[in-house]
């Protein structure tokens, strides 16, 4: 199960296919070193996403 508190790198290592979903949301940092230290929520907030958008995205990721 994916949560907003998971590290971006952890999400990708659990399911590499989700990297495409992350880049589709504007998160082109999936391959950068920062992905190992930043949570999904932190990354999405930096890219201007709202709490509702984050919650909806987490639900979408968990359906993949």
Percent helix, as a range, is 40-55%
Number of helices: 4
What is the total number of structural domains? 1
- End-to-end Cα distance, whole Å, is 10 Å
Which descriptor suits the 3D outline?
Answer: globular
- SSE string, helices as H and strands as E: HHHH
Q: Total strand count, please?
A: 0
- List segments where confidence is low: pLDDT < 50 over at least 5 consecutive residues: none
Radius of gyration: 10 Å
Largest sheet: none
Which percent range describes the beta-strand content? Answer: under 5%
Mean pLDDT: 90
Structural class: mainly alpha
Give the topology, please.
Layout: H1 8-14, H2 18-24, H3 40-46, H4 51-63
Structure characterization notes:
- It is a single chain.
- The protein has 64 residues and is an all-alpha fold.
- 53% of the residues lie in helices and 0% in strands.
- The protein has one domain.
- It is built from four helices and no strands.
- It is globular.
- The model has no long low-confidence stretch (mean pLDDT 90).
């Amino acid at each position: 199960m994916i949560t907003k508190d998971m590290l971006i790198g952890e999400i990708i290592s659990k399911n590499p296919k989700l990297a495409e979903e992350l880049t589709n949301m504007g998160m082109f940092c999936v391959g950068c070193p920062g992905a190992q230290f930043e949570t999904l929520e932190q990354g999405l907030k930096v890219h201007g996403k709202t709490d509702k958008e984050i919650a909806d995205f987490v639900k979408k990721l968990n359906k993949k």
